Amino acid sequence: MAKGFITFSVVSLLAVIVLGFLFPWIWWLLVLLIPVIIMGMMDMLQTKHAIIRNYPVVGRMRYWMEAMRPKVHQYFVESDIDGRPINRIDRSTVYQRAKRELDSQPFGTQFNVYAEGYEWMAHSIQPKSFDKMDKDPRVTFGGKDCLQPYSASIFNVSAMSYGSLSSNAVEALNAGAKIGNFAHNTGEGGISDFHLKHGGDIIWQIGTGYFGCRDEHGNFSDELFAEKCALPNIKMVELKISQGAKPGHGGILPASKNTPEIAAIRHVTPGTTVFSPPYHTAFGSPKEMMLFIGRMRELCKGKPVGFKLCIGQPTEFYAICKAMIATNIYPDFITIDGGEGGTGAAPPEFSNSVGMPMLDGLAFVHDTLKGFNIRKDIRLIASGKIMTGFHILRAMSLGADTCNSARAMMMAIGCIQALLCNTNTCPTGVATQDKWLMEGLVVADKKQRVANYHRDTVESAIELAAAAGLPEPHEVSRNHMYRRVFMNTVKTFEDIYPSVKTGSFVDGSADAALQEQLAGISTDRWY
């Protein structure tokens, strides 16, 4: 559109000049044309609004409409199968924090507090002083075999690949992570120069396509993996088993986004649609998976190595835990994604109807690790529509050590959810490889917005912990969180997700049916 505006300006001026000599009255059109051209040039030169930068003059209509409408917050309302609201996500909060605008609202809560699914946190009559709280709580990743532990923020950038995102978007996220001292997950698309340019901490995600560390046949390459792991920016490695938005499906890179540059990073043929396999070829059983994780840790010289998954069959995760114990190889962390997770492109059946939701999966993983008495060796990362401080505390109440966010970080750099991620025509330059559209996203401006959003959201989580009388966020428990499960029925998270006794899966004190099920699980095959 910006390119079209330049063409329009040049052609219009030439037409007026040429026709003006034949029809003198046409010169008066310059009175209208020149201000429009000046306005358009100013729009293309400004750096704060990607829509106006990419769509000069006409893009202003979006902001005029926003200025005229009532000042209400913009909510996603997730619903269950009967249409009842189960969660609300406030987009305005993200935009306000990213831009350092007024982060408050009039007239109290915007929610129906008596609706099923409404959640809240219990406060204390004797809250802690926010001013005395640690404003940057950190979590150390690294188990017994880790040689290079990593101190992480409690809130980080979730996995989004270069290729799905533009180079400017990747730069803005990583530069923001550098400013705010938090981590940036690469997604399964490999490590690009844009991930490394600004020096932000990186979590390198390895998917089923082994992009960036694959040989000519698409198999995992020890040599390439070890070579890239030596980069100082890479602080941790995450093996992606499944993704919440499309578990069991594998990723898709459309041909229109597969540029020669991206193809070189991923070691694939440019201009082709690239499908990630739905499963890993480097291992074929729970025991082999643990051995592979041990091999990865050795190749990366002891940096923290973990895996990401959306929970499907519970028995498969039981088998993974038994394989940990059998091999004495433990991941340094596990990232739990939810079936509600986002993506640029996935079949609707997978997005809507496959995979355990994040809160259920998080509670299940935490309790299972406790049951096997191996939770103390492993950190848990929650990844699934984490956008506010309350979401962070809610995840921590179910066992999360840290949280990752994707869509909120995209909003912080300008995403308006145009839902064009898979078409290469994202109007804000976030999810496109179109050079003209990418120019609308100015890294220098958006990197600070990422850092702003991160800082204010972490501080809001700390402020909530203080209001609950807790010395720090990780002290939150399931008894602090409440959910209205029916119009006149309220339950705590402890009621909904009953805690498991530490070691009960191995000392014989668990439910008899579960004990029988666990006894029949092998570490040599998947179920």
List keywords for this structure.
about 35% helix, alpha/beta, about 525 residues, TIM Barrel, single chain, eight-stranded parallel β-sheet
How much beta, percentage-wise? 5-15%
Shape summary: globular
Any idea of the CATH class of the largest domain? Answer: Alpha Beta
Task: Please bin the fraction of helical residues.
Answer: 25-40%
Can you tell me the residue ranges where pLDDT is under 50 for at least 5 consecutive residues? 72-88
The H-level CATH homologous superfamily of the largest domain, spelled out, is Aldolase class I
Descriptive overview:
This protein has 527 residues and is of the alpha/beta class. It has two domains: 2-68, no CATH class; 154-496, Alpha-Beta Barrel (TIM Barrel). It is 37% helix and 14% strand. It is built from 19 helices and 17 strands. Helix 1 (2-22) packs antiparallel against helix 2 (30-45), helix 11 runs parallel beside helix 13 (358-371) and helix 14 (389-397) packs across helix 17 (443-467).
Structural topology:
Layout: H1 2-22, H2 30-45, H3 50-54, H4 60-68, E1 75-79, E2 85-90, H5 91-99, E3 119-121, E4 138-141, E5 150-153, E6 155-157, H6 167-180, E7 183-185, H7 193-196, E8 201-206, H8 222-229, E9 234-240, E10 252-253, H9 260-266, E11 274-275, H10 286-299, E12 305-310, H11 314-327, E13 333-337, H12 348-353, H13 358-371, E14 379-383, H14 389-397, E15 402-405, H15 407-412, H16 435-438, H17 443-467, E16 481-486, E17 489-492, H18 493-496, H19 512-519
Parallel strand pairs: 6-15, 7-8, 8-9, 9-12, 12-13, 13-14, 14-15
Antiparallel strand pairs: 1-2, 3-16, 4-5, 10-11, 16-17
